[in-house]
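Run log, item B.
One chain of 497 residues. Sequence copied directly from the ordering sheet:
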Amino acid sequence: MATQHPDNAFAPFWEKDGDGFVSSQEEMQELYASFKHLGCDEYMWDWEGKYVDEAIVERLLTEYFTYFQKNQLGRDKFLTFRIPNIWQEKGYSLARAFMSILTAADIAHDIKVKTPPLFEVILPMTTAASQMIHIQNTFTELAKTKHKLFQDQTQKFNHLEIIPLVEDVRDMFNIQKLLGSYSQSFQKKYHKKLPYIRPFIARSDPALISGLIPAVVGSKIALSEIYQWSKKSKIPVYPIIGCGSLPFRGSLAPGYIEKFIEEYRGVRTVTVQSAFRYDFNLAKVKKAINILKTSLPKSQPFLFAPWEKNNLFKIIAISSKIYRQTITGLAPAIFKMSAFVPARRERRLHIGLLGYSRKIGKLKFPRAINFTAALYSLGIPPELIATGRTLKFIKKNRVYQEIFDCAYLHLKHDIIRAGRRLNKENLILLAKSNKAWRDVLTDIEYIEEYFHIILKPKKPQDFLHRNATSDVYFLRKNKQDVSRAILAAGKLRKSLG
């Protein structure tokens, strides 16, 4: 699933002006390139907190009719709307998204291609089955009204499949309850069994809110719970996971595909975000996508017993507490730095009526990409924050240690990869005036002791990255613009954030 996540440092391979900024007018070309040139199966069209071309299906079928006549939407290629969560963001976009879906069905019917071309939507920040049923009811009522007013030929199309996107670690542990409640409500309302469901597990926002270890372990628990629920309910499941290229946001990047597939066994769909598609060699990107398409259907999930789940929850609770205390102390530096991260999409501000923010306590943090970019640009990879102290806690308990080793297979690999971008000189300077940075130094000490490694640059690109982050630090200290230095560092690590 190609997505519009704005984490690319380089310009897209298809972009004519080469400025790296993907405007809403360019997104149709991006969608087509993802299908045609990269071989992606699905594209997420994001209505959440951004500006959107509402006539996307009509434009695609007009501009690329020959391609989509052969590769039909809804049959061969899939366009999936991520709608706004009306419990978090005002629902101005929801009605427009639904009308786009309904009119797309009319257009497809009239030109005699697959109808409906769009039939699933992603509901972000899903926390209750009632939200999913409400979205279905709203669409059904709107469809009935439209069909009555316009007497169209697609009157049978009045139902959507809802993809719940779970973004909180606690909700991941309780995902069986969500799926069970939803399937019961669905059967009661529609008098039939739920045909299938595609639960969507987030990786970026859980990491931002709770830290690396809780995000990874939480997602692994969610996969286990999803498959255990499927076995009991006899309802097929096809889990999705949303991952970025850097380890903090999922470690899904060309060159690391095999380890990713082993780590997240049981996943059936993965998001290949902007950095994955644009910041690596194009041939390697295509090869990586082909490996994913071949391997994901074959991977089998790791199932955790209830006692293992309970112990992992204890680890997560400790780790999250350590992480949140530290990140709260780092907030001023993160806020200042994130403001200089180059924009890659036409996003609304996540404030007021038109959006929302990610909260840790009372503090409103930037979105995960800018958050990650801010810390990497200072030379302090967020993967390291709270990880050392969490490992020290785990090491004291043999049971925790054994379970944790099964729950996060490639932690050492992720830490070494992130540690190559560490600028210890910057961290030592920052630690002189802030205890929270000194706590990060402690994390690094414990990590190095635990794995018997030294976290530092190793390859020429790593040393260049360290130099770029030193530029960021000293430019910012002198109150100068750091956006160019941030972009330079992002290109060296092949992802903004």
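Observations after the first pass:
- DSSP finds 21 helices and nine strands in the chain.
- The chain has two domains: 27-298, 306-493.
Flagged for discussion on Thursday.
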